[in-house]
């Protein structure tokens, strides 16, 4: 795969899947905009990308103004956009009896769904111009954007060894303890998900759109 001179914007790029994906795109020759809330972590990822075509953008994309700034900054820096990777997300938990249930729900939806929809909305004019390329949203967007040559796919990972649990306050949870949740009894590494994302964005996947790829070591299969 080659992404030479392609421009890729990755949200949630400060660690985990986002960081691994950004590094792989950079390795394949892409110009990459790294977006996240932790500048220190973003700068470390930028160093690992080993490329001069990396731009760090500190932003909270759940804030519409900051999301728009992300897109404007990316276009100003690289003059186009070929690939958008909506990776930013949080993990929280609350039971139906929890007083903070709806607060937890709103925060998750704001970042894990709404922010992705808005980032896509901001990216569409640029993706259409360059002809580049959440399940229901993916299919709907794929239908709407197909006539413009834009492909839309999604990746649904299972347990992945990142710092999302630590960031969410689950310091007593071990990744090894989560192995039993999968059919293959293993936890994915961020690089495995990055491989799939870069494949879907490449010309090798030029016939694929509107698809959701489950990459969870059989976790969903085990619990169906």
From TrEMBL:
<dbReference type="InterPro" id="IPR002347">
    <property type="entry name" value="SDR_fam"/>
</dbReference>
<dbReference type="Pfam" id="PF00106">
    <property type="entry name" value="adh_short"/>
</dbReference>
<comment type="similarity">
    <text>Belongs to the short-chain dehydrogenases/reductases (SDR) family.</text>
</comment>
<dbReference type="InterPro" id="IPR036291">
    <property type="entry name" value="NAD(P)-bd_dom_sf"/>
</dbReference>
<protein>
    <submittedName>
        <fullName>Uncharacterized protein</fullName>
    </submittedName>
</protein>
<dbReference type="Pfam" id="PF13561">
    <property type="entry name" value="adh_short_C2"/>
</dbReference>
